[in-house]
Amino acid sequence: MEEGWRRCAVMEGLYHVDAPTVLLSLLRISHGGDIPPSLFLSLSFSLSVYSEYLDIWDVDMMRRPEELNKKQHHTELFNSDYLIVRRGQEFQVKITFNRPYNPATDKFAVEFVIGEPPQFSKGTYIPVFTAKERPSPWEGRVTDTADNTVTMGITPVADCIVGKYQMFVAVVTPVGIRRTRRDNSRDLYILFNPWVSADAVFLDDEKERQECVMTEMGIIYHGAYDDVAERDWNYGQFNYGVLDACLYIMDRSDMPIINRGDPIRVTRKASAMLNSRDDEGVLVGNWSGDYTYGVAPTSWTGSTDILLSYANSKMPVCYAQCWVYAAVFNTFLRCLGIPSRVVTNFYSAHDNDGNLKTDIILDENGRVDRGRTRDSIWNYHCWNECYMSRPDLPTGFGGWQIVDATPQETSDGMYRCGPASVKAIKHGQICFPFDAAFVFAEVNSDVVFYSRNKDGTMEPVKVNRTHIGRMVVTKTPGDVTRRDITDQYKFPEGSTEERTILEKAEEYGCQREKSNPPVADVDLVLPTLEISRGDDFELSLEFINRSTQHRTVEAYISGSVAYYTGVTSYEFLFRNPTVKIGPNQSVKESMMVEFKNYVKHLVEQANLHFIATGKVKETGQIVTTMKVITLHNPKLTVTVSDGGKVNEEMTATVEFTNPFTFSLEGVYIRMEGPGIMLPKSKYYSLIPGSSSLTWTEFFTPQRAGRSRVIASLDCSAVRQVYGQASVTIEP
User: Where is the secretion signal located (predicted)?
Assistant: First the structure.
């Protein structure tokens, strides 16, 4: 029986077949427009017989947010005119016929089609029957009948293709199959379903599900390990047009339709498509500081503008850095129903050599040789974790998987990374796909200082095994605090388990520094400071002698403006004091750092990187320390009018005072809020020093609940200026 449905579907091209109408037309043509009375009487009898059979009058997709379909499938927040459901779970449609449905004699099917051409064997044409003697790939059953209307429950299989389907209803008549015509209003979207255990993305934790699928407002962590900063982000996965934009990304990648039900394939392909390096993907990376032809990465407040711009223009969007890639990727994943979160790794190694060593080269006197130091340590790096089973890996390695869209290195010929099992990273199983070795190095590399002799040979003089992967954090589910998940990536530093894991990684080809240079008996300590942009401050480097003898250190103290990727831009401070320290004593070497000496050279993240190195004269040992200071920026003040209600106009006001003596030029301010305000922006050509501005926007909330209005101010002279205001909208 199914073969007959498939054959008719292909032959008829899935369009409406109206036998009486076709017959009348043919008769009129053959008789010059007039039908003889005898033929007309015969035809009238045939039509009266035909009218006794089932005919389709109307199809109700039950797609309104207040109806059970969207509520039961957790899709009521989507701003869409279409039915959106999740696979592996029943949804219902109402079909109205010309007369009451008789299950004993009437035969009909609901057909779903995705892709071109539809094929039953590939799961792109799915007929769903009501009768048990006609099994179908998806389960179908009549759940209710009332007068001429039948309510049918349909359950897509839990591994079906994710995407936008066309739907038809077909009935069997004496002269063939009668099928509804193509009607866009009957299209529906089917998403991944983390609420159903049979789905590969099932997450058995309601609090995590709410956070990692349903929450639109995110917090992304940045700054420094000992001075963590927060950046609010509106993922906006339910905004109008975002779902179509996410599906367009898969279309643009030429991903076969039949692969779009597999979260492993979807996330791997998307990690390549979110950057534009080799496939005209969504975002163009830029770490240069010059954003003339696009939007500065620090200016974005949400994903909506980026995704809609890409879908509408069909061109990559300028510009992104790691947290923008991660935030937009998070929108993509949550929108399609894959649980996901943005993760920040502080002191993240970018290991160009593919080993477990981040190499810093010193000259024979102990000064950093920047020309020969190729590896870099990012102050922080953001990537995504998504939740899924991994049937391609041994049992126990499912769950959270790392995916990273920031284009750092190629994987199988494309700039992408993951999915890599977090548990595989923790247990040193770096042979597992995909890109586990690269991620393992990001959180486990050793920082090795080499002394380069005059003859070009290099000797390891210090190994820091605890600097990289110092802390891994993400947002706490259901809260606005951060959650330390470092223990999910690695065992405690120095523990027996950690040593065992590192040895296992070596078995799979990772090269570690085996030497253990003697630990110097002099320590260098740089303080943790919280400094605001515009402040002069005192930097004190402490030399601690832990021996019972005098020590003399020939030191080099360097201060540079640095990108958050660890790349230095401008050295504004250099000292090379000779410091004498008594037995078991300490000495501080202090110096003033003046704002005027580095302000013109600051890059967008306002990071100052200090590194102190030196050689102990009496022992020849090398001593080092490093510190990143992120300057704190001024804040925006955001206020929202009182008494917020759905569909009632409100105002949001942004206020800013320029705290500097110089003017800010070419200033952009952006503002948005999930469920209450679409992205808005305003341009100011000049904000004079010490002057203030006020910008007020009207908006109309579309749904009730707690939300936030977030705002950013951005210009070439000062970036990462943010503000936010919480608001509760009543029904």
Answer: none
